[in-house]
Write a structure and sequence with these properties.
Helices cover about 55% and strands about 15% of the residues. It is of the alpha/beta class. A six-stranded parallel β-sheet has the order 2-1-3-4-5-6, with helices on both faces. β1, α1 and β2 form a beta-alpha-beta unit. α2 packs parallel to α3, α3 packs parallel to α4 and α8 packs across α9. It is elongated, with a radius of gyration of 20 Å.
């Protein structure tokens, strides 16, 4: 089995490469960012891609976005996201790609047996699906109520955003400073795991999430 690894940490990248070699898995390329990942896949046409989620330049969801793009180009490409956390923004899109086959999402801290891990990789490369139960739990929880994780104050700020109030107006209504309102808005955007993109107005996405919640 030929594998391409994308991981920004040199130590983890080299350690993973060495570990896979023990199980007869050939690492044909090991790169440190999403752009290099796409180049490596085009060049090597691997049987499997293993990618971290947070990578340069922004350390948000570059690896996952690259994986989604690669699956859009080639739905049969086997991909395993290997991360320390669940990136909700693109996780569902990745898991739903390619009819849900040849895909995996595993959490680094919950891998306790390297032999089992190697077997999971082979299973994905052969068309199977392997998703950590904690990933499933978090995705289901978010789908049931994306606003549940917000504090009462953050919900108040989001409600005012939905009503079209500026930060200054929200500050006056809630007897907060504008800096305080901005901090709450930042927390809302982070907790809702809204993608960072030049083409996306995260405030609008947050308001849409609020309105969907109110209509349920």
């Amino acid at each position: 089995m030929r594998v391409v690894i994308a991981e920004d940490s040199v130590l983890l990248r080299e350690g993973l490469s060495a570990m896979l070699a023990r199980f007869g898995i050939e690492v044909v390329a090991a790169v440190g960012d999403g752009s290099a990942l796409r180049v490596a896949v085009t060049e090597h046409r691997p049987d499997l891609v293993i990618t971290d989620v947070r990578m340069p330049p922004d350390f948000t969801d570059e690896g996952l976005r690259a994986a989604v793009a690669l699956r859009a180009e080639d739905p049969a490409l086997a991909v395993v996201a290997l991360s320390q956390y669940v990136q909700h923004s693109y996780a569902e899109e990745l898991l739903a790609s390619g009819t849900g086959r040849s895909i995996g999402y595993l959490l680094k801290d919950r891998i306790g047996d390297v032999a089992e891990f190697a077997e999971q990789l082979r299973r994905v490369a052969e068309g199977g699906t392997v998703v950590d139960s904690e990933v499933v739990r978090q995705l289901m929880q978010r789908r049931s109520d994306p606003l549940k994780q917000l504090s009462a104050r953050e919900r108040e700020v989001l409600a005012l955003m939905a009503q079209g109030h500026s930060n200054a107006a929200a500050a006056r209504i809630l007897s907060l400073t504008e800096a305080g309102v901005a901090k709450h808005i930042g927390n809302v955007l982070t907790k809702l795991n809204l993608p960072v993109s030049d083409d996306t107005n995260r405030r609008v996405l947050a308001v849409l999430a609020y309105l969907r919640s109110r209509s349920d």
